[in-house]
Amino acid sequence: MTRKTNDAIEVRNAVKRYGTFTALKQVSLTISDNEFFTLLGPSGCGKTTLLRMIAGFEDVTEGGIFLFGEEIEGLPPHKRPINTVFQNYALFPHMTVLDNVGFGLEMLGKSKSEARKRAGEVLEMVQLSQFSARKPSQLSGGQQQRVALARALAPRPKVLLLDEPLSALDLKLRKAMQIELKHLQKETGITFIFVTHDQEEALTMSDRVAVMSAGEVQQLGDAREIYERPRNMFVADFIGETNLLEVTVDQIDAGRAACHLGGGHRLTCDAVDGIGAGARVHMSLRPERLFLSSAPTESESLKARVRENIFIGTDISTILDLDDGPEFRVRASNSSRGTSRVFEPGTEVFVNMERGAARLLVD
Amino acid sequence: MAKGKYDLRVYPGFRAITLLCLVILYSPLIVVMVYSFNASPSITNWEGLSLRWYADVFTGPESAKFKSAARNSFVIALIAATVATTIATLSATAILRGGKFRLRTLSFGLISLPLMVPEIVTAVATLIFFNAIGFDRGLLTILLAHIAFCIPFAYLPISARMQGIEATYEQAAMDLYATRRQAFTRVLLPLMAPGIVSGFILAFIVSLDDFIITNFVKGAGVETLPTAIFGAVKQGIKPNIMAISTMLLGVSVVMVTLSWLISRKDRKT
Predict the structure, then answer these.
(1) Nearest CA in chain B to A134
(2) Per the CB < 8 Å rule, is A90 touching B166?
(3) CA dihedral in degrees (A119, A121, A122, A126; nearest 10)?
(4) Alpha helices, DSSP H only, in A199-292?
C-alpha cells in the first residue's frame, strides 16, 4: 500500500485506548509537506497522545499513521525519520551541547567528526556556537530550548514534532521564540507539528491549526478561519474571548439567519449548515468586532447599560448588561478612535456589530 | 538555619543530648584508634606514641595469618561487590524501566527483603543450603554468600538514582535514532553512574566487614579479616588488633568519602 504523496503525515482513523479510557476517538487528518501545523487544545484533549503516536512512543489501537504515504505504525521511534523537541527539553546532562546536538547523527552511523561538524553548523543556525563546550545545566532556559531545537533538527528529520516547547519560557522570550521558530521552519523546509494549549501561540505561528478536545478534532483550518468562523461552542469559547448568547433561529432567508434572544432583541447573521429555523443554539460575538454608540446605528442595535470599564493596556474592555438579557463584553482598542466609543458606567448605550461578527455555533 | 519557632536548638538540653550521642557513638572508636598507636603491649596503659603494632601486623608472628585473611577479604569484597552491583543494576533497570509487568511489586519486595531478615537467619539458611547441595565450604561458598547478601545493598542507591532519572532522556535518545541498547549504554548508564558507584561501595564495605554469615559458611582454615580478628581476640585482645581495626576503619572512611565526593560532583554539573 505504498504510494508517494505530498502529505508529510496522514493520520487515518486513529484510535487510542488505555484500557477502558479512550484518549483519541477516530482522528483523521493530513499534514502537508513543509507545513507548520499545530495541535491546539486544553490538557487531556489527546494532542500529546497523538504527537507521541506519530513519534512512535505510543502504539495506535486502531487505524494507521503514514509518513509520505508509507505506513510507519509498528516502527520503533529510532526507525522513524521524525525528531521531537520535548517539553522539558530532555537534554543529556552528561554531554556537552555539541555532543547533544551531534547525538542523532552519531546514532545514524555518522563518524564523530562528521557529527560534530554538522552539530556546529546547526548550533550556528540557532546562534549558540559559543556555548558548544558547555553542559546543558550551564545554560539558561531559553538557550536550553534552542539546543533542544538544534538537536532535533541536526539529523534533518522529515518531520519535526514540538511538544509545548515554549511553555517554560517567560512571555517576552516566548514571543521571540515563536517568531524564530516560524522562520526556522521556512528556512529548513521541514514539516513542523507543534503541540500547545496556548491559542495565541497557535494562531501566531501556524499555517493550519487543529483544535482538539475530548480526543477529537473539533475544527481544522487556518488561523483566520478558526478565529472568525468557529464551528462549534468549544472552538468559539477556547479560541480568544467571545460572548456566547443563547438564541432561537426564527427563519432562514437567502443565506441569512434571523434570530432572537431573550428580551426581544433581534439579530441576523450568516446561516450555517446544519442549523435550521426553530433551532435553539448558541451565537458567538467577538468583543472586538462590536462597538458602542449613544444612538442606534442600525435596526439591530442592542440596547444595554454600561456596568464597568476595564483597562487592559492595548484595549479597553467594557462589561454591559443587556436589557432583559445576559452580560456582554465589548472591546475597543486603546486609541483615539477606540476610546471615543468608551462610555461611563451607568450610561445607556447601543451595541452595534460589524458584519460577520456574529456566528451561529453547532453545540 | 532559620531561627524560627521550630529551631530545634530552642529546646532545653539540645546541646547536651547531641554531645552525649556523639560521645557514645564515637568514643569507643577513638579509644581503639588512639590505643593502636600505644607503645605498650597493654591495651589499657598508655606508654607513649609508637607504630610498633602496625609493624607487628605486617611482620609479627601473626602477620601471615592476617595477610592471607586480608587478601581473602579484599578479593571477595571486590568480586562480590562487582557481581552484586551488576545484578542490582540489571534488576533496577527491569523493575523501573521494564514497564508494568506481573509480579513487579513482588520482585521489588524480594530484592529488598534480605535487608530486613536477621543476619543470623540468613547465615543459617545459607549454610543449610550449601550442605543440602553438597558444596564444600571454602572461599567459593563465602563468595557466593557475599554476592547474595550484597545485592540489596547495591540495589538501594542504584534504584534511588534511577527513580530520579526521567524516562524522557531515554525517549529522547531513541527519538534520535538510538536503539534500546544504545539508549541504555549511552544515556541511562552514564546518568546512573553515581548511583552505581555508591551501590558498589556500599556492597564492598558490607562484604568487607561481614562476620556472621562468613563465619557460618567459611571452610576450616579459610579466614577473612573479621573472622581472623575474632579468632585472634579469643586468645586475648592485643594492640595489634586495634591497629588492624583502625586500618579497616580507614578503608571504610576513604570509600564513604569517595562515594560522597562522587555524588557531590554529580550534583554540581
Answers:
(1) B269
(2) yes
(3) 130
(4) 199-205, 223-228, 233-238
Q: With a cut of 50, say whether residue B21 has pLDDT above it.
A: yes
Torsion of CA B111, B113, B116, B120, to 10 degrees: -90
Q: Which of B174, B191, B269 sits opposite A78 (nearest CB)?
A: B174
pTM: 0.81
Question: What is the number of CB-based contacts under 8 A between chain A and chain B?
Answer: 63
Inspect the interface and report whether the beta carbons of B173 and A83 lie closer than 8 Å.
no
User: Hey, is the C-beta of B185 within 8 angstroms of any chain A C-beta?
Assistant: no
Question: SS3 for A230?
Answer: coil
Taking only the tens place, the pLDDT of each residue in B51-100 is 888 988 888 888 888 999 999 999 999 999 999 999 999 999 988 887 77
**Contact A19/B at CB under 8 A:** no
Question: Considering only CA atoms, which of A303, A300, A289 is closest in space to residue A343?
Answer: A303
Separation of alpha carbons B85 and B155, rounded Å: 7
Which whole number is the average pLDDT over B31-44? 85
Q: Is the dihedral of CA A214, A218, A224, A227 positive or negative?
A: negative
Note whether B85 and B78 are within 8 A (CB): no
Helical spans, DSSP H, in B113-238 = 119-132, 139-163, 168-175, 180-183, 189-208, 212-217, 225-234
Q: Which residue of A has its CA nearest to B174?
A: A78
Distance CA A122, CA A142 (A): 16
- DSSP character at residue B1: -
Cell triple for residue A353?
A: 456589530
Rounded to whole angstroms, the Cα distance separating B219 from B232 reads 17
Long-range contacts, stretch A234-239, CB < 8 angstroms, 24+ apart: A235/A211, A236/A282, A236/A284, A236/A359, A236/A361, A237/A284, A238/A40, A238/A41, A238/A42, A238/A199, A238/A211, A238/A213, A239/A40, A239/A199, A239/A203, A239/A211
Q: State pLDDT tens for residues B106-157.
A: 888 888 888 888 999 999 999 999 999 988 888 999 999 999 999 999 999 9
Q: In chain A, which residues have their Cβ closer than 8 Å to the Cβ of B186?
A: 103
Average confidence (pLDDT) over B1-10: 63
Contact A108 B177 (CB under 8 A): yes
CB-based contact, A77 to chain B, within 8 Å: yes
| Domains of chain A with CATH codes | 7-228 (3.40.50.300), 241-361 (2.40.50.140)
The verdict on A135 touching B (C-beta cutoff 8 Å) is yes
Q: How far apart are the CA of B162 and the nearest CA of chain A, in angstroms?
A: 14
